[in-house]
Amino acid sequence: MAITTERASTTASSGASDQEPRRSSRTGPVLLTTLTWILGIGFFFPVLWMVLTAFKTEGDAQSNPPTFVFTPTFEQFRTVFDAGIGPYLANSLGATVISTVLVLLLAIPAAFALSMRPVEKTQDVLFFFISTKMLPVVAAIVPIYVVVNNVGLLDNIWTLIVLYTAMNLPIAVWMMRSFFLEVPSELLEAASMDGASLARTLREVVLPIISPGIFATALICVIFSWNEFFFAVNLTSANAGTMPTFLVQFVTSQGLYFAQLSAAATLAALPVILAGWVAQNKLVQGLSFGAVK
Amino acid sequence: MTSTLERPPAPSGPPPAPGQTPTRSARAEGWVRRAPLLPALVFTIIVTQIPFLLTIFYSLQSWNLVRPGSQQFVWFDNYVSVFQDSQFRGVALNTVIMTLGSVLIAVVLGLVLALLLNRHFIGRGIVRTLLVTPFLITPVAAALLWKTTLLDPTYGLINFVLSPFGVGEEAWISDFPLASVMVALIWQWTPFMMLLLLAGLQSMPTDQIEAARMDGAGAWAIFRELTLPHLRRFIELGTVLGAIYLVNTFDAVYMITQGGPGTASANLPFYIYQRAFLGFDIGQSAAMGVVVVVMTIIVATFALRLVFRSFGAAEGSN
After folding, report:
1. Shortest CB distance from A40 goes to which of B127, B244, B307?
2. Would B29 be classed as within a structural domain?
3. Top-level class of domain A83-287
């Protein structure tokens, strides 16, 4: 778990900069720390509330004033599983895992060709990749729907896999490139002095250095594909629907019962929350296309 | 290309065979270099560019899926009606308000949180993890959460929290639909801005601040004269990236308000979705898509190139 994340240098420096005010008054830092904690809990509370509501009875979930003390029940989760969450969960898992593997298979060689042994026009290629993220997906959905419909791939998991791969590939290329660039060039020079082949250098020198980066990139892809809704809701129904579409379908069929919904939402959100907690250090790097470390 | 490894061609590629012209082996070397890139490039071009070209093609046609045989070439008629459509203009305005409003508020809140977190205190890692979580929640689940347990007029937590301040059973979603959607978006995107700005704060040279403090500069002066200028490019980057991601907002609108009442809280992605999948008007929705893309490209290319230049990300010199 990468929850405690102060880098050694920043810890030292912020520790040093705290010294000055602490000498004059001790209440200032305590107040700031309390405020930070209150804001942190405040931002987190809706998530906690969702999880709590999932363990309530419907009566406790819809009460005025809200119920804070209650006997937890698994009834809602049972309802959600009885509503047929299984196939949706499997589809989400399949679309997420397969598209992530495809992204890595395509992005790692591409990032290599854009960093360590750069092709000509590297800049243009990089900006082409990023520009595809700027095309609003809504502008592409109509032809995608028409084409997918014509070739009979509507409500097919592979349609989502292809689209999710394309959706995450630019981010992965930029991210992986920034990891390749972090490999110290002295190491590579030393390896080529020793007469190591390119393949061996990659396997024995480069791979160990970039493997945390590969892991982080994979987690970012997992988060995005798991959460994706627009393609899923427009291109799938009963066969290939993913977890976000399950939530919609669940609302439509069961109505707005808060406790049931919270149980379904908790199940839908949980895997990504866990993945994100692990990847939180690399989240910004991924979303800023590697611009910020 | 300062930190990229420019190998001399001799040890990596095969030596030029006698009789072969150097240009031909250079060309072969070029293809060896390009080979790892091509699968990703070709895949991206096919999957992202062809639909867009088709969108342009469809936008020049009158084509409604519920009227078979209605497909015919009408050139720019769809664009004319899009620009005459007052709903489209309203929805475009909503999109600007929703995107810019959410991004700017998220940046300000993110900055406050980042400054608070950039200190050494007990449980800092835990607080950071708590703060990151809203960003990770599946947007559909987050939207449902706001629509039901938080903003519900009778049972919602927000009205309960605000009741000591004289707020009754306020129906936030029907009275303030656009603001309700934006609250959910701001809640989800503030953590991202916070992480980005925290990275900015941590990359700040501390000796400058120490020197300023030695000279007797106050906390506010240090913030305004040193911290804020240093954070400027991070704030710019956050704004641009946030805008790119948020202009595509669909989940929150779809789940919380369905764009309603009327089109009061509809943004362009939701409006185009309605036209395409509920109205089956392929030509019109494609034309709107093209308009959105042109607007996005105008804003994004300039802004993004500018911001990335300042980070030197594409130059590989960071």
Report:
1. B127
2. no
3. mainly alpha
Whether residue A36 and residue B127 make contact (CB cut-off 8 A), yes or no, is yes
Flag if B119 and A18 touch (Cβ within 8 Å).
Answer: yes
Angle at Cα B251 formed by Cα B142 and Cα B129, nearest 5°?
Answer: 35
Enumerate the residues of chain A whose CB falls inside 8 A of the CB of residue B203.
293
Structural domain count, chain B: 1
DSSP-derived secondary structure letter, A202: I
**Residue A55, SS3 per DSSP:** coil
Q: B79 lies in a domain?
A: no
Whether the CB of B313 is below 8 Å from some CB of chain A: the reply is yes
- Distance of alpha carbon B215 from its chain centroid, rounded? 41
Domain of B168 in residue numbering reads as: 86-311
Residues 6 or more apart whose CB falls under 8 angstroms from that of A24 comprise none
- The answer as to whether B81 is a domain residue is no
Contact call for B301 and A134, based on CB within 8 A? yes
Return the residue of B nearest to A50 by Cα.
Answer: B145
Q: Do B155 and A258 touch (CB under 8 A)?
A: yes
Q: CB B129 to CB A280 under 8 A?
A: yes
Q: Which tens digit of pLDDT belongs to each residue from A84-108?
A: 899 999 999 999 999 999 999 999 9
Q: Is the peptide bond before A65 cis (omega within 30 degrees of 0)?
A: yes
Domain boundaries of chain A, sorted by first residue: 83-287
CATH number at residue B299: 1.10.3720.10
Distance from CA of A104 to the nearest CA of B (A): 10
Q: What is the pLDDT of residues A12-24, one digit of tens each?
A: 444 444 444 444 5
Cross-chain Cβ contact A139/B52 below 8 Å: yes
Cα–chain center distance at B304: 11
B273: which chain A residues are within 8 Å (Cβ-Cβ)?
Answer: 138, 141, 230, 234
CA dihedral B197, A169, B307, A117 (to 10 degrees): 110
Q: Chain B contact for A48, CB < 8 A?
A: no
Place of tokens 């001399």: B8
* Single pTM value for the model: 0.85
Instruction: Indicate whether B24 belongs to any domain.
Output: no
Residue A180: which of A121, A126, A108, A123 has the closest Cα? A108
- Given the cut 0.85, state whether the ipTM is greater than it: no
